[in-house]
């Protein structure tokens, strides 16, 4: 049995608030294989972002565990999780999260530089080219439109050839047409790099592009089904 | 189908990766403008602290050098007996320059006349500091020369020429030797540093080698030997002082100019305190500026760090990166700041050359060390904590904006900042009292603020922006940013307080000095005048246009019993040393006690206490002397009955007296008793006759007093002294015109030094205010940009901004005023030996100035918000 790329075991998250302990996630179990594409959907406030953050090791769970490529996050401190993220994980966010003081090119270069690789510039240029922004390489984020910024962010996410890509409403801040183009790009690159993709969305159209849809309701998984895509994909193989 | 992935989970990044990453971040931050403010603040801090330290260093050296002229040396040793040669030999081996002088009173004869002169023999090296001014005609300005007469020659003061009917080239005879008169002395550097011996007649200066031939100086003659020492290193001077103390069991004491003149000593130490305070404020302000910009810098970097962490950077790597950035920042700003500091100080010097009364010696390295250490300590204590807090930024921040590291280490920066300030201030001032006063003031301001402004801003708590009118809008803005505003008001208040303290101190010090030695200060003392001579002397003054003053009776008295018991002095008097005034203090004692004892200089502690008890020059008067103030009890009125006495307050305290006590005095062998009716404060530093004890008229009038008076004689009137002394041969004239002139020069120099430092600190204060306004700009910018997109008019936004800043300014100004007055109270009473009076006008001017300055600064920095289109604004902040 091949090892799952992401394995979520009895994951719980609760936070203390002034009105008592708030349980955001309860006993989540998930298993996601390499190169799978999974959409997490659910009502606002159902805990999607929280789940994504926990799977990506951006936060520590209250109980339960997440294993990324077999490495247990629960047994790691933030330092170790950071190292694992650097090796394994890429991100795309709703609000892009580009560094405003860096140009598009530098933003894409940053994770490569952080890894200590030498060919950062060429690689980054290639990726910018791939996302169709080679002429805007030296522009700063505030000189780019939202869609362009998100393309830069996608370029950055693939820069280190991460095995897993987490995306939190990557089209949430974009109009439909632009969103659609971003989605194309995301899935194209995903296929190219054979990345495992986990994305949070509330757009049905986007969710349906994924092989699997996990629905959260009030912090628990209410349904988990494969889409026709997944079936297609399997049959192609 | 993932087989187990080959992952490098060691997290090791090579050092060179980190360095290159740090370098890239640094460069990009710089280019993006993020780092500019912080590095600007750092460079500014180093520049201002180094610049001011350079000034202070050089001014202080200049003042010390200049005042050393009064001794013609850095240190001096004085004795009535020949000094042991070992001292001279030791001094030589320690690398000192040395010289000797010998003063004595003698008759000088010319071919046709004779007079009493105060002779002074000097060795080749004399003077070690300062210059003798000589001329070839009497009563002219003269030219400086850095030596005394050669063997066989004599130099005389101007007024000796008419008296002895001399001209240049004539012979004079002192004792058994013959000397040729070669020059006229206009001034000599240490003219005033003598006792009676040096002031009893016009000066005749001769070479040391000629003394033996005169045969005047014999065992038991009344002479003063002086050794002069010079060395540019203060530590070497102090070491030598200690050596003499130990070696000679305090029989000899190395004196500096402060021992010689209370006035100069006071002026110098006040100037030093002021300069120190000025540089302290510069350091403090620099620290504030750094703290503010560092906070802003790190706040802007939260997202940065969060993203770096999602990209796999560990906290330690982030800490390493920011540390490296800081190291580079510090190095660059130290280098740049030192250069700029030097340039600034050189530039200002150039500008001020005409007004600056001092020649500045080159500075040492200390200013640069001070500047560098300030940058390092400021950065460590103010900038490091927020930057290190960055490492704690949770990566989850990329998903949830509300998470920031502040929750984790909220108090850290304050503790560090406070520790850093205490360290800096105490290290810099090396003075626990000043450190304490300043920190107390700052803490008090902080406490006052937290309560006061909080309550005030909170008073009308309501929801929403209140965008209806500008006043309400401003108030609601001020309330919304309450926490930020309290911090801002605090910074403003501390800055304004620093400036207020300095400016008020400066004004008070300068006016004090002007009052202390006004232009028309009498510069000649006449003593030993008998009742019958008074009329004649007054006539003489009238005829010759000399400004004379009142005649004080002078009689020597001793407190024998207090309320019928032996007096019990309470240890040392507050001031420690003997008052070096010209009357009432020790100086006049010489006259009676003759040559055996040279006044204050031969005393040791124990004797001093007894001396104070045993003999006082006292007087009687119908009215309170003009400089004195009654602090307790009442002065007698016109029709005063005899039998009352008024006592100087410290002396009274020393004897433990109370109003109504009855004292028994011994006055020239007779018993007199009197009741204490008042205590007085006395201005000891005005170079005028001052008395510890004043009787009411009629109490001791008939016991045989002599009289003392003072007069103002201009340089060209001094020749009249010859006639005066001839007409009233028993009278003793003490010439203190040289001394007064020297003190006035030194005070003028001290004044310009103070003005200069004040000016410099003013500039750095203004810069801090500016950076503080800028520090809160982001949020205001954002809010107002949104208000504009929502359709708020230009006028509404502008006037609400002005009102918000002005309100903050008024509050800050008021709190600063309270803080300044409180600190001034302690500073003036404890450090500057001044009396503190409330500065009423400041209570209005402080808040007003705060309002105007901060309103204007705020407006100036935010006006862009209404100039630029809202779209550009929104893009800029997103
Ligand atoms: N640190 C926290 N403190 C308090 N409440 C929290 C915290 N983190 C999450 N929550 C709450 O948990 C719930 C789930 O949050 P989460 O961000 O995961 O929702 P979401 O499904 O992503 O919603 P949306 O679709 O609106 O983004 C929300 O009600 C949120 O307010
Ligand atoms: Mg969400």
Contiguous uncertain segments of 5+ residues of chain B: 573-611
- Secondary structure: number of strands of chain A: 10
Which descriptor suits the 3D outline of chain A? globular
Radius of gyration of chain B: 35 Å
Largest sheet of chain A: 6 strands, mixed
**How many domains comprise the coordinates of chain A?**
1
- Helical segment tally of chain A? 8
Q: Radius of gyration of chain A over alpha carbons? A: 18 Å
| Chain-averaged pLDDT of chain B | 77
Helix run count of chain B: 26
Q: Give me the count of strands of chain B.
A: 21
Q: In percent, how much strand structure appears in the residues of chain B?
A: 15-25%
| Count of all domains of chain B | 4
**Which protein chains make the most extensive interface, counting residues with beta carbons within 8 Å of the other chain's beta carbons?**
A-B, 44 and 44 residues
Précis, in short:
The complex is a heterodimer of chains A (237) and B (878). With 237 residues, chain A is an alpha/beta fold.
């Amino acid at each position: 049995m091949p090892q799952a790329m992401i394995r979520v075991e009895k994951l719980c998250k609760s936070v203390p608030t002034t009105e008592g302990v708030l349980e955001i996630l309860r006993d989540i179990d998930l298993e996601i294989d390499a190169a799978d594409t999974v959409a997490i959907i659910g009502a606002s406030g159902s805990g999607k972002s929280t789940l994504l953050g926990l799977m990506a090791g951006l936060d520590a769970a209250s109980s339960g565990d997440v294993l990324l490529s077999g490495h247990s996050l629960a047994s790691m401190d933030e330092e170790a999780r950071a190292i694992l993220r650097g090796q394994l994980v890429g991100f795309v966010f709703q609000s892009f999260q580009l560094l405003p003081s860096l140009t598009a090119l530098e933003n894409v270069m940053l994770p490569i530089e952080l890894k200590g690789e030498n060919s950062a510039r060429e690689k980054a240029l290639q990726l910018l080219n791939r996302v169709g922004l080679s002429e805007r390489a030296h522009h700063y984020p505030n000189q780019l439109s939202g869609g362009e910024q998100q393309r830069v962010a996608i370029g950055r996410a693939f820069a280190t050839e991460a095995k897993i890509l987490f995306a939190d409403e990557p089209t949430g801040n974009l109009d439909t047409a632009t969103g659609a183009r971003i989605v194309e790009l995301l899935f194209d690159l995903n296929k190219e790099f054979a990345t495992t993709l986990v994305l949070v969305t509330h757009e049905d159209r986007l969710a349906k592009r994924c092989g699997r849809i996990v629905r959260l309701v009030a912090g628990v998984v209410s349904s988990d089904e494969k889409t026709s895509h997944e079936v297609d994909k399997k049959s192609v193989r | 189908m993932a087989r187990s992935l080959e992952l490098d989970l060691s997290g090791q990044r090579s050092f060179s990766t980190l360095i290159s990453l740090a370098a890239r971040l640094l460069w990009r931050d710089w280019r993006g403008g993020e780092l500019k403010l912080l590095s600007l603040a750092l460079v500014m801090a180093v520049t201002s602290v180094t610049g001011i330290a350079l000034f202070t260093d050089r001014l202080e050296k200049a003042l010390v050098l200049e005042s050393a002229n009064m001794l013609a040396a850095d240190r001096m040793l004085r004795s009535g007996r020949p000094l042991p040669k070992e001292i001279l030999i030791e001094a030589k081996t320690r690398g000192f320059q040395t010289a000797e002088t010998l003063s004595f009173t003698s008759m000088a004869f010319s071919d046709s006349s004779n007079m009493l002169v105060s002779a002074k023999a000097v060795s080749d090296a004399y003077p070690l500091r300062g210059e003798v001014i000589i001329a070839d005609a009497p009563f002219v300005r003269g030219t400086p020369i850095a030596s005394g007469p050669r063997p066989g020659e004599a130099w005389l003061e101007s007024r000796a020429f008419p008296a002895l009917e001399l001209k240049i080239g004539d012979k004079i005879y002192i004792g058994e030797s013959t000397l040729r008169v070669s020059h006229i002395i206009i001034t000599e550097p240490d003219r005033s540093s003598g006792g009676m011996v040096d002031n009893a007649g016009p000066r005749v200066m001769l070479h040391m080698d000629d003394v033996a031939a005169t045969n005047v100086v014999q065992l038991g003659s009344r002479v003063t030997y002086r050794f002069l020492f010079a060395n540019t290193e203060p530590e070497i001077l102090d070491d030598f002082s200690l050596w003499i103390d130990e070696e000679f069991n305090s029989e000899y004491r190395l004196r500096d100019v402060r021992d010689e003149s209370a006035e100069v000593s006071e002026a110098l130490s006040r100037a030093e305190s002021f300069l120190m305070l000025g540089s302290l404020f510069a350091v403090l302000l620099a620290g504030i500026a750094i703290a503010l910009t560092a906070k802003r810098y790190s706040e802007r970097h939260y997202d940065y760090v969060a993203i770096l962490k999602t990209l796999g950077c560990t906290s330690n790597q982030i800490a390493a990166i920011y540390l490296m950035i800081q190291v580079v920042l510090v190095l660059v700003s130290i280098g740049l700041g030192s250069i700029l500091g030097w340039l600034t100080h050189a530039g200002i010097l150039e500008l001020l050359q005409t007004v600056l009364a001092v020649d500045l010696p080159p500075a040492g390295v200390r200013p640069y060390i001070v500047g560098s250490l300030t940058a390092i300590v400021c950065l460590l204590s103010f900038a490091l904590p927020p930057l290190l807090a960055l490492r704690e930024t949770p990566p989850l921040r990329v998903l949830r904006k509300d998470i920031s590291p502040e929750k984790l280490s909220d108090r850290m920066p304050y503790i560090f900042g406070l520790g850093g300030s205490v360290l800096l201030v105490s290290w810099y001032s090396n003075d626990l009292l000043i450190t304490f006063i300043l920190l107390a003031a700052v803490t008090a301001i902080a406490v006052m603020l937290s309560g006061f402004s909080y309550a005030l801003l909170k008073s009308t708590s309501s929801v929403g922006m209140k965008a209806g009118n500008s006043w309400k809008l401003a108030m609601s803005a001020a309330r919304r940013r309450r926490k930020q505003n309290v911090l801002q008001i605090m910074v403003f208040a501390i800055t304004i307080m620093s400036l207020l303290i300095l400016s008020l101190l400066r004004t008070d010090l300068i006016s004090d000095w002007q009052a202390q030695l006004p232009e028309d200060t009498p510069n000649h003392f006449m003593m030993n005048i008998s009742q019958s001579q008074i009329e004649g002397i007054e006539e003489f003054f009238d005829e010759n246009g000399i400004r004379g003053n009142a005649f004080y009776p002078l009689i020597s008295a001793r407190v024998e019993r207090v309320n019928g018991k032996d007096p019990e002095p309470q240890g040392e008097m507050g001031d420690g040393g003997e008052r070096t005034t010209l009357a009432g203090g020790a100086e006049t004692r010489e006259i009676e006690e003759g040559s055996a004892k040279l006044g204050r200089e031969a005393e040791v502690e124990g004797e001093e206490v007894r001396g104070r008890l045993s003999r006082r020059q006292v007087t009687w008067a119908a009215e309170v002397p003009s400089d004195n103030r009654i602090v307790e009890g009442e002065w007698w009125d016109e029709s005063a009955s005899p039998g009352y006495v008024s006592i100087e307050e410290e002396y009274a305290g020393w004897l433990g007296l109370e109003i109504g006590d009855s004292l028994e005095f011994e006055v020239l062998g007779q018993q007199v008793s009197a009741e204490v009716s008042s205590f007085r404060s006395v201005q000891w530093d005005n170079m005028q006759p001052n008395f510890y004890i004043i009787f009411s008229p009629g109490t001791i009038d008939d016991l045989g007093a002599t009289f003392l008076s003072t007069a103002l004689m201009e340089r060209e009137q001094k020749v009249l002294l010859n006639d005066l002394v001839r007409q009233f041969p028993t009278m003793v004239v003490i010439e203190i015109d040289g001394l007064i002139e020297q003190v006035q020069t030194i005070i003028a120099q001290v004044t310009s030094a103070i003005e200069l430092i004040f000016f410099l600190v003013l500039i750095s204060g203004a810069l801090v205010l500016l950076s503080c306004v800028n520090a809160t700009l982001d949020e205001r910018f954002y809010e107002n940009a949104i208000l504009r997109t929502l359709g708020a008019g230009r006028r509404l936004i502008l006037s609400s901004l002005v009102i918000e800043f002005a309100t903050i300014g008024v509050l800050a100004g008021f709190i600063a005023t309270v803080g300044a007055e409180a600190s001034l109270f302690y500073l003036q009473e404890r450090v500057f030996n001044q009396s503190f009076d409330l500065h009423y006008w400041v209570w209005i001017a402080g808040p007003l100035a705060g309002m105007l300055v901060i309103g204007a600064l705020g407006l100036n920095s935010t006006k862009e918000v209404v100039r630029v289109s809202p779209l550009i604004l929104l893009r800029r902040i997103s």
